[in-house]
Amino acid sequence: MSARRAIAAAVAALAALVPACGGRSAHAVTVFGAASLTGVLPELRQEFLRGRAGERITLDLAGTPQLVAQIEAGAPADVVATADEASLAELRARRLLDGPPVVFARNRLAIAVRPGNPRHIRDLADLAQSGLVVVFADARVPAGKYAAAALGRAHVSVHPASLEQDVKAVVAKVVLGEADAGIVYVTDVRAAGGKVGGVAIAASDNVVAGYRIAAITARGRAFRDFVLSPDGQRVLRRAGFLSP
Amino acid sequence: MTRRPPLALAVPAGLGVMFLALPLVGLVQRAPWAAVGHQLASHEVRQALRLSLVTSLAATALAVVLGVPLAWVLARVSFRGRALVRALALLPIVLPPVVGGVALLLAFGRRGLLGGWLAALGVRLPFTTAGAVVAETFVAMPFVVLATEAGLRSLDPRYEEAAATLGARPWSVFRRVTLPLLAPSLGAGAALCWARALGEFGATITFAGNLPGRTQTMPLAVYVALESQPDGAIALSLLLVAVSVVVLVLLRRRLFPA
Amino acid sequence: MTLVADVQTGAGGFSVDAAFAVGAGETVALVGPNGAGKTTLLRAVAGLSTLDDGRVVVGGRVVEDRRAGIRVPVEDRAIGFVFQDHALFPHLSLLDNVAFGLRARGVGRAEAAARARLRLDRVGLADRASDRPARLSGGEAQRVAVARAVAVEPTLLLLDEPFASLDVRARAEARHHLRDELAVFGGTAVVVTHDPVEAMTLASRLLVLEEGRVVQDGTPAAISERPRSAYVAELVGVNLFRGRAHGDHVILLSGAHLVIADAGHGDVLAVAHPRAVALHRHPPEGTPRNVWAGVADRVEHLGERVRVRVGGAVPLVAEVTAASARELRLADGGEVWASLKATEVTVFPV
Fold it and tell me: Which residues, 6+ apart, have CB-to-CB distance to A164 below 8 Å?
């Protein structure tokens, strides 16, 4: 057999495989969520599925820009929830959304510190101390953008040890003790339980993050609507998110 | 003898080639060729490139310094638990690099097993260039151990015995006979180690973090640039692919003896 | 005694239990069939493998004694070792190969190089000092290997089948070179071989090893006269004649003539198997041109064959069938004629 025929046969076999991989159940919904929703989305899913036997929800949690890039590349998401406005506006401009994005929660920043706050950090200005290991998220994820904005408002210049991939990685560095402090969301401090301490940021310096949700397919509408419903909002309040 | 391949082998073989080649084709096809030079000349890229070269070469040196003696012990000393030590030496190849990074934090991090001891010496690894070197060494050292041990095992022991009968002490035998005879295997192992270190991502970002100029090596820069500057990311990726291909071509005789 | 060894070892897959001694300046050939444990024994003496029990004394120094817990490492034993395939360092020049031991023993670079060059000069390879071993012929490599081993002036030199990797033609020349080298070396040497000619041309004494045990120990003449086993009879129990070749004949040391198909010229060793020697009660007629009168003075039965020692101007050993021994009534002794065909004699230059 010639090499050309072998390649042609290979292409045909490959093509035959594709539809088999693409089939999905009508009741399976994939939700793409920002990293800072890591704690609350499973709870929302649990509430949502209560009384909806036979339905399934798959969660894909990552930094917001990564989610956007995947959706633009055709990832099979049904709903997307991000911690900023710009990302969904971009997807909407590209006509990738089913309906407009809606604000479903708000969040504020806090300083995550070691339990018991051994370095006695009281405000953003204290993060500029020399010898203090401070991390925050890279400026391309919303948490990093907000952290930079808050430091700007407080007129504080901090040299970070690292610009982490998403806010969960910032929390992890403080939990592991590698960083003395990190700038995260209030809800992250709460979700970490006692593993990190939280230091509030003055309201005048703080930034309010608006979380937006949008359906991408018709299948995703029900979950979006649930998140906006009183039941969904109750779950979000419990996790420390502010009302929209 | 050249065989005509049966269909049952030719088809999966063709599929395999396509599977491996298509991502590279995609990369080449999407590359902003007109802008590649400009992209690679930017300050951020040159900074990442320089950092990658420094850390990967340092990691290779460290892997050789630690890996060659380890390979020698594995090949030449018979002891209880040797199989276990060998498995340990190769573990980073199969371990997810992010897990490796977390494990490194738990060992060499501030709160890690050796954290206090390192701090007393004034050494900090996480979030430092040295940390990036450690992460790359951890992931890439198995290639040095693997290639060197295989080289040692295929080395005729009589060269070393002859050196001993001539009065050479074990260290002198190693330095003047074993090491020179091992050079080809060691060179192949070091080159593979270097290529692996150059491409290291997961352990580095987990253990050393991501800070341009300090720990943001090329693969991290590719990842960071992926959404904001896809053209830059593709240009960097092409550079990494080119380096890997050059290493493999240079080593083809060693890796695939005819 | 330069070497006193009592070796029990299972290393190398052969069980060896052998005791022997080698006197100062003596060259001993360790002979035996394949798998007899010759190499295993040699390696144990050198310290390349460990003893299960026993002791090794070199030049009056105990280098290994299991019961006393003594084990001197290889590099401190002052035992030179020539490996079967020579094991020349492929990454070093001939000069650096020969200088290696001197350098390892702390001799300065310049002096080591000068002494190594002298050694290479002696084996006729000084002009190739900067060559790599890969470019040498088997015989040349063997010479360099011996030069390298003797360069450090070891108390004892061990040679493991030094000619095994050489083709037949190269062997005669290599044997010649080695004999000269050993003579110059002047030290004590043990040569492993399974070739009786090598053994007899190089050594003044043979040590026969079979299945890990020393079965016979003595001069070549004594052993070929009274082989104690079929193996020894087969391989070592041959007739050897030293002499000087003159074209088609050899003049033996006793003055007798030995006619050969093609003898060549110069000093030679002529070998004839006892089976090639025919015995007669009356002077034979016909083709054999080597006929000597003698007396059948010892008859030994080795299974179906009988070995007969014939004393006389040319002492030799004949091996005949039991039937012909009866027919000739050899057991009665008395005068016999021994004949040997010229084509049955092999000649080796020495």
Answer: A135, A136, A137, A138, A170, A173, A182, B209, B210
Residue whose pair of structure tokens reads 């504020």 in the numeric block: A108
- Of C242, C248, C250, C213, which is closest to residue C229 (Cα–Cα)? C213
pLDDT, averaged across chain A: 88
**For residue range A47-91, what is the model confidence (pLDDT) as tens digits?**
999 988 888 999 999 888 888 988 988 889 999 999 999 999 999
C-alpha C272: how far from chain center:
17
Q: How many CB atoms lie within 10 A of CB C182?
A: 20
Q: Would an 8 Å CB–CB cutoff place C67 in contact with chain B?
A: no
CB atoms within 10 A of CB C287: 9
Per the DSSP assignment, residues forming a β-bridge with A79 are A31, A215
**CATH node for A107-208:** 3.40.190.10
Indicate the length of chain A as a whole number: 244
- Inside any domain, residue B233: no
Whether B256 maps to a domain, the answer reads no
Do C263 and C293 touch, CB atoms closer than 8 A? no
pLDDT digits (tens, 9 = 90+) for C145-162: 999 999 999 999 999 998
For residue A112, the SS3 value is strand
List every span in chain A annotated with CATH 3.40.190.10: 3-106+210-238, 107-208
**CB contact (8 A) between residue B209 and residue A163:** yes
Instruction: Classify residue B243: in a domain, yes or no.
Output: no
Contacts B76 to C, Cβ<8 Å:
none
Beta carbons of C104 and B172 less than 8 Å apart: yes
What CATH number was assigned to the domain covering residues A3-106+210-238?
A: 3.40.190.10
The residue whose two tokens read 């396509």 is B18
Asked if residue C165 lies in contact with residue C86, where contact means CB atoms within 8 angstroms, the answer is: yes
CATH number at residue B117: 1.10.3720.10
From CA B32, how far away is CA B46, in angstroms rounded? 18
d(CA A208, CA A201): 11
Is residue B48's pLDDT more than 80? yes
Q: How far is CA C284 from CA C266, C287, C339, in A?
A: 30, 9, 8
Q: Would you say the C-alpha torsion B231, B232, B233, B238 has a positive or negative sign? A: positive
Chains that touch B (3 or more CB pairs under 8 A): A, C
What is the three-state SS of chain B? CCCCCCHHHHHHHHHHHHHHHHHHHHHHHHCCHHHHHHHHHCHHHHHHHHHHHHHHHHHHHHHHHHHHHHHHHHHHCCCCCHHHHHHHHHHHHHCCHHHHHHHHHHHHCCCCCCHHHHHHCCCCCCCCHHHHHHHHHHHHHHHHHHHHHHHHHHCCHHHHHHHHHCCCCHHHHHHHHHHHHHHHHHHHHHHHHHHHHHCCCHHHHHHCCCCCCCCCCHHHHHHHHHHHCHHHHHHHHHHHHHHHHHHHHHCHHHHCCC
Question: What residues form DSSP beta bridges with A185?
Answer: A109
pLDDT of residue A3: 47
Q: Backbone phi, then psi, for C287, in 5-degree steps?
A: -70, -40
Could you tell me which residues of chain A have a Cβ less than 8 Å from any Cβ in chain B? 1, 6-7, 9-11, 13-14, 65-66, 68-69, 133, 135, 138, 140, 160-165, 173, 176-179
- Domain total of chain B: 1
In this predicted model, what pLDDT tens digit does every residue of C285-304 receive, in sequence order?
766 578 888 898 888 887 78
For residue B184, give its domain range.
45-217
The CA distance from A65 to B225, in Å, is 10
Helix (H) or strand (E) holding C58: strand C53-58
Contacts of A14 in chain B (CB under 8 A): 15, 18
A230: buried, middle or exposed (CB in 10 Å: 19+, 13-18, 0-12)?
Answer: exposed
Q: Which value does ipTM take for this structure?
A: 0.79
B203, part of any domain: yes
Q: Does B110 touch chain A if contact means CB atoms closer than 8 Å?
A: yes
